Amino acid sequence: MWPNSSFGSFLLTGFPGLEAAHHWISIPFFFVYISVLFGNGTLILLIKEDHNLHEPMYYFLAMLAATDLGLTLTTMPTVLGVLWLDHREIGNVACFSQAYFIHSLSFVESGVLLAMAYDRFIAICNPLRYTSILTNTRVVKIGLVVLMRGFISVVPPISPLYFFPYCHSHVLSHAFCLHQDVIKLACADTTFNRLYPVVLVVLIFVLDSLIILISYVLILKSVLSIASREERAKALNTCVSHICCVLVFYITVIGLSLIHRFGKEVPHIVHLIMSYVYFLFPPLMNPIIYSVKTKQIQSGILHLFTTHKVRP
């Protein structure tokens, strides 16, 4: 047991009042998880195998798919454990580690979407210097900065969780561990843990979304200066998939934030559903969006499965 910890585990919660239906509820969750693993795994394999996709835009897409895979694999074991086996108990260390990876990967996803916006900005506003600006080395550096920002920024609020005493209760409100859930159960001064995440959300989610918005204003300005209508449409078409992914991610972030901030009278089930939408909808939709809207991905998937198919 960790210092000052009043007990060594927490109890996760599925859908209160619907425990008898947990097995049925688990069926759509299982298929969503399988779809997320298959979709994002296929994208990563495709980008690795297809040399036509060895470009910065697709490297960033592979980072996005890997982040979605990591987030899904972080929540999947405990969610399905609660719904299938009614296995609610989770140790302190496992709980805090899960919270760390959930929040870190959420910030990483925001950073990857920002990097993808930068890629589109350079491709459209400065196309002649695209290959010299976004070299493989620079793409790797951007990826490392995004990872470090996500994983280092979450250390300060997560570390104190190991040392707080927990004397109120040990029942969490979700089937996975979140910092804001755990901190409510602590019997200590949690001022830092309540204020720091707010600052972090502003500096990462809000700032990233504003920079993405500004980049698209500049992209639109550049596109409108193109004389040919066909060229304008072609330039904008390369941005559609990314815009859709950005909207899916930030709309779910805003929705979840509004529910937590102003939804005191909203039924708890709505809070639960919004949290699952936030963690599952973007990883489910991102590969679908890119598969539907990007011809190179479509032809790559077709080629991948036809070349790997066993001939009779």
Record keyword descriptors for this entry.
312 residues; mainly alpha; Rhopdopsin 7-helix transmembrane proteins; two-stranded antiparallel ribbon; 11 helices; 2 strands; 2% strand; globular
How would you characterize this protein structure?
The protein is mainly α and 312 residues long. The chain has a single domain, classed as Up-down Bundle (Rhopdopsin 7-helix transmembrane proteins). It is built from eleven helices and two strands, in the order E-H-H-E-H-H-H-H-H-H-H-H-H. A two-stranded antiparallel sheet has the order 1-2. Helix 1 crosses helix 11 (295-307) and helix 9 (229-262) runs antiparallel to helix 10. The protein is globular. The model is unreliable at 1-6 (pLDDT under 50). One of its GO terms (molecular function) is olfactory receptor activity. Residues 39-290 form the G-protein coupled receptors family 1 profile domain. It is found in: Cell membrane; Membrane.
What's this entry about, in short?
By secondary structure, the chain is mainly alpha-helical. Helix content is 74%, strand content 2%. The chain starts with 8 loop residues before the first strand and ends in a 5-residue tail after the last helix.
Q: Sketch the major β-sheet.
A: 2 strands, antiparallel
Work out the radius of gyration.
21 Å
Give the end-to-end Cα distance, rounded to a whole number of Å: 59 Å
Counting helices, strands and paired strands, the structural category is mainly alpha
CATH arch. level architecture: Up-down Bundle
> How large is the share of residues in beta strands?
under 5%
Protein name: Olfactory receptor
InterPro entries: GPCR_Rhodpsn (IPR000276), GPCR_Rhodpsn_7TM (IPR017452), Olfact_rcpt (IPR000725), OR51/52/56-like (IPR050402)
Function: Putative odorant or sperm cell receptor.
Transmembrane segments: 30-47, 59-85, 97-118, 139-163, 195-219, 240-263, 269-289
